[in-house]
Amino acid sequence: MSAIDLRLLRYFIAVAEEGHLTKAAQRIGIQQPPLSQQIRALETELGVTLFKRLPRGMELTESGQALLADARTILAQVDSTVAGVRRIARGELGRIAVGFTESASLHPFVPTVIRAFRDAAPDVALTVEESSTTDLVQLMSRNRIDVAFIRSPVGDVSDITIETMMVEEMIVALPAGHPLVRNKRRKSVPLAALAEEVFVLNRRPSGPGLYDTIIAACRAAGFSPHVEQEARKNLSTLSLVAAGLGISIIPASMRHVELESVNYLSIDDAPGLAAPLHLAYRDSGQSGAVKRFIVEARKCAKASRGAGRPPGK
């Protein structure tokens, strides 16, 4: 016996529930003669009689009663499966792995996007991964994560789209008591004024894009920074600044990290000294959940720009 056409099962259920061919035909939107032919075709396919033909209607036989319960279960499962795969395609079901660098995670934009996505797709299973920009790009290339918030990428990203969400300024972090912060009214400092300072920076492998940006900006200002200490994470960098081991240049969003022994100043006369925040994702093979995440990120970026909030604030 060949597979039964699901349409025939739907016709059968309609006739069984209405108990009348004309009423069933009206319910499903076809003419009575074709419906009668379809019911006979189903009976022929199964090799049984499903209905007793009565003068005023149709009555299920014992075989028909047995089929009715199973037919309802089969169609309910089919409908559930179809609805499920459609929800997956719309990004309402499925899984997504989101990566971010430490400095990106400290920007309020990242939790804002994740929260917006969770509100839009609460049934999508979401996992997160914090790592360096280089490692996140490699994980994405190996399909270990789906999207990532990163700073400036390096290396081969030929199969990955890097979409800029926003660009924030960079600021200088100085230990309490530093001569540049003794004047409480000072809000900014020229980059060239830092030429004689000892720098504490995040290690280049952890964030090569920002590291190279800082070095290039200092050289453009007429000096090569004296980097005496390097830390693996930005928060560790700030701890070293707080300990008085040097100053550091960090994304403005890290101003939210309030350490009693660290002061922050804006930087003047440093074109090109900026910290972009990108969303990285693979060019092809995007699931519905990934597409929805990208849409939510773009909405949040647009809302942030529309609100006129300064970068990193």
TrEMBL record:
Keywords: DNA-binding, Transcription, Transcription regulation. InterPro entries: BudR_PBP2, LysR_HTH_N, LysR_subst-bd, WH-like_DNA-bd_sf, WH_DNA-bd_sf. Residues 4-61 form the HTH lysR-type domain. It comes from the Bacteria. The keyword Chloroplast does not apply. Belongs to the LysR transcriptional regulatory family. PANTHER family: SMALL NEUTRAL PROTEASE REGULATORY PROTEIN (PTHR30346:SF30), TRANSCRIPTIONAL DUAL REGULATOR HCAR-RELATED (PTHR30346). This is LysR family transcriptional regulator.
